[in-house]
Amino acid sequence: MIRLFQQFIPKRKLLLIASEGFLLMTAVFFGTSLPFFATQPLGDADLTAILEGLLSAFTVAALCQVALSYNDLYDWRVSQNRSDLPTRLLHASGFSFIALAVLVFFFPALFRFPGLPDLSGQTWKLVVILMAAFVGLYYWRLGFHWFFFKWGAGEPIVILGSGRHARGLIKEIQDHPETGFEVAGYFGPRSDDPDLHVPWLGPAGELRQKAIDLRASRVIVALEDRRGAIPVDGLLSCRLAGMRVEEHTALLEKLHGKLDLDSIRPSYLIFSEGFRKSRLVLTAKRTADVLMSLTGLVVGAPVMVLVALAIRLESRGPILFRQRRVGLDGREFTCLKFRSMRHDAEDSSGPVWAGKTDDRVTRVGRVLRATRLDEWPQFWNILIGEMSFVGPRPERPFFVERLRSEIPYYAERLSVRPGLTGWAQINFPYGASIEDQREKLAYDLYYIKNISLLFDLTIMFKTVRVILFQEGAR
Question: pTM (2 decimals)?
């Protein structure tokens, strides 16, 4: 797995993205030079025209791959489903064609090809070429997945341990073939557990030689009790032989993009890489927050006026909903939102989490929540420094006190400003229980551990998808 923008991306996924980008670029660049489509021969083009054509082909390929990503076609488990693949490719192509038509209309200078320097009135040619390219992607996908299914070509790893941690890790790896990891077996006490679908390789003392014989790339330590059980000499020999030695919590973190709260220890948080908040990162993050919140308030003013009018016409009560939330370092602030519930929603129940079909939500409120327009006034909270665009969800003081006493490490999420969106919000639906909040904390801690401006940009990019497909709204 390769670390990119504070995320660990499987090599197979990167290979698929790169290969499809190359195929799309090639199809567009040379397709526009075919005799049927071209208005001038490719051989007559100078170097500048060729470079412009390559840049235009890259723009079209990037646009198509954004559409593929938004249709989950870079999720290995989804893209392997042959019955669902044609439908998703069709949706992705439709999005690409519409977006391309809009861009060509408003920014025609972006698209200049050596064989087709002027797209005015000829956008249909590019659409036909892309249709053929998407058909080619379908067969490329079938061949790509067949190759890895048939030949494996995985990265062999061995597990040290046979208990609960080892069983859970093996299952996770087998459930996520896109990682490219293949468990060659496990060392330690032999287990008769049927859930261990990998061979026993021997006691821990035989780790060094057998791991080398298997050409393992990694040794994953997944012991329940380490006292007197860790073969230090064997692990050191494996490390010096070029293998990576990792804790199972570190590998699970890479697989899921979250910390494993069930097995994590304070020493892991203390000694592991990450949790660095440099002044440069925080300054850049704050600058981006100010610029984007100002832009959002100015550009969104007409929409906010219409929303306020709709709320006023539907039900009595204030337009803005003000609620105390807990922010950076535990300081409370007043969070602003457009009111989406009845004004007396909690008069009888007190503070409660919203349900999936909450009858307190008004008709206008349901639209606001589905589109996230109810959160637009929080741009003001961001502008004055109480919130950030990206961070853990701001929670109410009542719930914070309760969750701090019931969930370990919950207070650590208060070490950064709360966010309008966040890593937990885009990876897990609305949390309406203690267990849900525990799961979201695992994602929040991963974000805090890997905080960076590029990671924030990645989260905001994925947030657009969440809003478009109305995922997780309540």
Answer: 0.75
Residue 388 token pair: 């950030």
- Dmax over CA atoms of the chain, in Å, equals 78
List alpha helices for 421-470, DSSP H: 423-427, 434-449, 453-468
User: Would you place residue 344 in the very low, low, confident or very high pLDDT band (cuts 50, 70, 90)?
Assistant: low
Side chain identity at residue 239, one-letter code: R
DSSP element (H, E) containing 172:
helix 164-175
Q: Is 86 strand, coil or helix?
A: helix
Determine the Cα–Cα distance for residues 152 and 141; give it in Å rounded to an integer.
Answer: 16
SS3 370: helix
Backbone conformation region of residue 277, classed left if phi is above 0, alpha if psi is from -120 to 50, else beta: beta
Question: Could you read off the pLDDT of 368-402 as tens digits, one per residue?
Answer: 888 888 899 999 999 999 999 999 999 999 889 98
237 pairs with which residues across the strands? none
Beta-strand relationship, 332-338 and 388-390: unpaired
Strands 332-338 and 7-9: unpaired
Calpha distance 452→267 (Å, rounded): 23
Torsion-angle region of 6 (φ positive above 0: left; ψ -120 to 50: alpha; else: beta) = left
Q: Rounded CA gap, 246 and 8, in Å?
A: 15
DSSP 351-393: S-PPPTT-TTB-HHHHHHHHHTGGGTTHHHHHHTTS-EEESSP
> Which residue has tokens 């390219």?
133
Secondary structure of 278-303 in HEC code, one letter for each residue: CHHHHHHHHHHHHHHHHHHHHHCHHH
First to last CA, the chain: 35
pLDDT grade for 417, boundaries at 50, 70 and 90: very high
Residue 303 pLDDT: 92
Amino acid at 113: F
Distances (CA, A) of 226 to 101, 212, 231, 252: 61, 23, 10, 19
DSSP 426: H
- CB-side exposure of 288: number of CA atoms within 13 Å? 15
DSSP letter at 395? Answer: B
Q: Considering the chain, what is the average pLDDT of its residues? A: 84
